[in-house]
Design goal:
The protein is mainly alpha-helical. It is built from nine helices and no strands. The radius of gyration is 33 Å and the shape is rod-shaped.
Length: 242
């Protein structure tokens, strides 16, 4: 332990260090999650709570007691091995522990350590949720994925996928998307079936086509863009006729 860490440890102010708690959480969580894939945030919380009592508190009290014994031995080393002195030291050990337990350790645990730990857990969970939402926003919608799939099939000279449960399951495994959302997307692309009375649906469809075209623009594939533009006009014309 470094000298800069000794004083905060002895004064027990180390538990109020939010950076230390963050470091402990990240190390503990990543370590256990690498061994147990389903390891949760709450499991890490319980680990840190146990570590507070069985590691931090234990080391702190033993360290203080050893320092007290060392100082006592230096000033009274002749009577150190006296049975009476030994029994007194054991009694003082127990008395000192209960005093520190109720007046230092429990208050510090309830009023400082747990609030700081729970605050960081909320922050950590919020960051995870934010990352998931950001990932969802960046991910293509099912219609866009099916449009891209349709274009690749068209360019390869393959027949359109038959709209049935079996093919929907295959596409769901291929793209990691919901089976239920695949068939409506295929019906839109292949048959032009969509809710033409919904302005929102029309806007979403146009946005999906634009996203798919942007995908192929990045790939510099003009032929794919032409296929999408032709398909888009075809679907919109069906809507106009209806």
């Amino acid at each position: 332990m470094k000298l800069s860490e000794v004083i905060p440890f002895l004064t027990f102010s180390v538990i109020a260090d939010h950076a230390k708690i963050e470091e402990q959480f990240n190390n503990c969580h990543s370590n256990h999650q690498s061994r147990f894939p389903y390891w949760s945030i709450h499991a890490t919380r319980r680990k840190l709570m146990s570590n507070f009592w069985y590691a931090t508190v234990f080391r702190h009290f033993i360290s203080l007691y050893c320092i007290a014994l060392l100082v006592t031995a230096l000033f009274n080393h002749r009577d150190w091995f006296n049975p009476t002195i030994f029994m007194v030291s054991v009694s003082l050990f127990c008395f000192a522990f209960f005093v520190m337990l109720f007046f230092i350790y429990l208050p510090a645990y309830q009023s400082m350590y747990l609030p700081l730990l729970d605050s960081y857990l909320e922050s950590y969970s919020g960051k995870q949720l934010e990352a998931i939402q950001k990932c969802k926003k960046q991910q293509y919608s099912v219609v866009v994925l099916m449009l891209i799939h349709h274009v690749y099939q068209k360019m390869a000279g393959l027949q359109p996928v038959l709209i049935n449960t079996g093919n929907a399951q295959l596409l769901a495994r291929q793209y990691g998307i919901s089976i239920k959302s695949i068939c409506p997307a295929l019906q839109l692309i292949q048959r032009g079936e969509w809710d033409r009375s919904s302005i929102r649906k029309r806007t979403e469809t146009l946005d999906d086509f634009e996203t798919a075209k942007e995908h192929f623009r990045l790939l510099q594939n003009d032929d794919a863009i032409l296929i999408l533009e032709h398909l888009q006009q075809k679907i919109l014309q069906r809507g106009a006729v209806a």
